[in-house]
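Page 42, continued from yesterday. The earlier attempt failed because a stray header line got pasted into the input along with the sequence. Redoing it now with the clean sequence only.
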Amino acid sequence: MRRSRYLLLLLSIGMLIGSVGCSGAQDSTDGSNEPAGEILETSEDQETEVQNGINEADDVQEREEEWQEIDPEELGVDELGQVMVLMYHHIREPEAEWSRTPDNFRQDLENLYQQGYRPLRLEDYATGNITTPPGKTPVVLTFDDGNQNNFNMIEDESGEWIIDPDSAVGILMDFHEKHPDFMPHATFFINGGTPFGQKEWVDYKLNFLVDNGMDIGNHTATHLHLGEADAATIQRELGRILQLVSEYVPDYDVNTFALPFGSRPKDEALWSYLVSGEHEEVSYHHVAVLEVGWDPYHSPYHEDFDGSRIRRVRASETKVDGVGMYDWMSTFESGSRIRYISDGNPDVVTIPKERVDHLSSDISEESKRTY
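This time it went through. Structure tokens are written below.
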């Protein structure tokens, strides 16, 4: 748990401090011919590492103390509540079924922020690593198809190339700058070819996403409807995206997948290949497989959570049949559905005691907190 990691971190820092001291004594007495400047540089690097470790330990302790002080009943904490995984496509004019205008997307982010929602990485949601601050609600932002209006580069008046401020990434980064506690976490599901258009910028764009807390997801190489696909076709479509991404971001793990058209193979025996498979010696494993869906999905701690069947809430179109994001936000507000409220501690699941019967059997007694 968090306290154990904190103690281990302190122990590691102590060992590192000791190694720095021993190293310094040895350098002054072993009679080596190493230049003094190089010894001094190494010592400074070690001291910096020690200080960084101390700072990290202080941060861990501060977060733990903050968690210990919260009143879950006062904050309405319920970590079995539901989570909205929002589905966007185009960010462009005009507003349409699969398009959200830049101004409307900005308003979406503002409304989410004001109502206590904070972005969480899809991988962290699917694996139950929810670090959302106490009293806040995680929300997962996703964008399908790798459209250029999701991440566009433009030349400004001075001739400098910049991120288009009206693209999804430009809007997310600007909103984060104004609201530092609203991280620009979002997953962009790409197809093959030239993700986000602008071939000369693919390298920059994919690395920018990863470097700034955003993620690259799998959407098949050809945006294939999988209804009639066989095992070899499914694995080829998914494996080729890993091959593409590895050309630009070699160490990045593409581990989430959004079903094109929300379609699954008609043969249920093939569904396992949506999660794991191999193509040309490239293996993939998806911790989350997303459907199109129409409503919020279970907490990852709920007994009915299934990472291979995560439903999404439509965010990229006007209200249709009462299942748009604002409909569900109103539903949460009315209490007709229970929304996830975080306790701020990813190592402990806090829930009202009357809800304990719905907790996943994978949650240990030591990781459970009821009130």
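Notes: The chain is about 35% helix and 15% strand.
Reminder to self: strip header lines before submitting.
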